[in-house]
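INSTRUCTION: Work out how this chain folds

Fields: amino acid sequence; protein backbone structure tokens

Chain under study, with its fold:
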Amino acid sequence: MVQKAKILLVDDRPENLLALEAILSALDQTLVRASSGEEALKALLTDDFAVILLDVQMPGMDGFETAAHIKRRERTRDIPIIFLTAINHGPHHTFRGYAAGAVDYISKPFDPWVLRAKVSVFVELYMKNCQLREQAALLRLQLEGSGKSDVGDSKEPAGLLAELSARLAAVEEQAEALSKQLDDESADAAAVATAAHLERKLTGLRRALDALEPGTGSGAPSLPSQN
């Protein structure tokens, strides 16, 4: 059973949170509410999120300050942030949003279909990254197990390698389809860059698997970084 991605919704107005939940419920993911920047930072201490929808205008810690804290933490700095704002002070205000680390900056009222489409892209990228981490973890377990195996047990690692290769091929196919979709829809540069980063990590994992095939050398390859 595929685990659902978590989406963090940050807004000090309950009616805005309710509206966001109504818009994003069709994605069938886990929606987590936070009514302040402080509450959002607490949620980020324990849970992993695919994307954060962050209101700019909030009492106390505003959206810009909250984003700055998120980007300073190693655990959360790579989570995409979409700023939502009811005000528009021109290009300078928008630039401040991107400078704070946002991947997008949307003014209210916004088109629900557009917002849902943007969020769905980051959810899909998050799910692909989760699959990649699972493949890498399985590969590490296989390498550790094969290091302790006797020579007579060589068939078992070979079978696991074949299974890992087949699973990786499925992820590679999905990532390629996602990249084509982003190109076709002229998606945001941040989403395209994230997809390219995912494909590079997939390529590294594929090379590691290929190096483990019989006749390719006796040394264990280094695995791709999970950063």
About this structure: Confidence is low (pLDDT under 50) at residues 150-155, 217-227. Residues 15 and 34 are 13 Å apart (CA to CA). The longest strand covers residues 6-10. The radius of gyration is 21 Å.
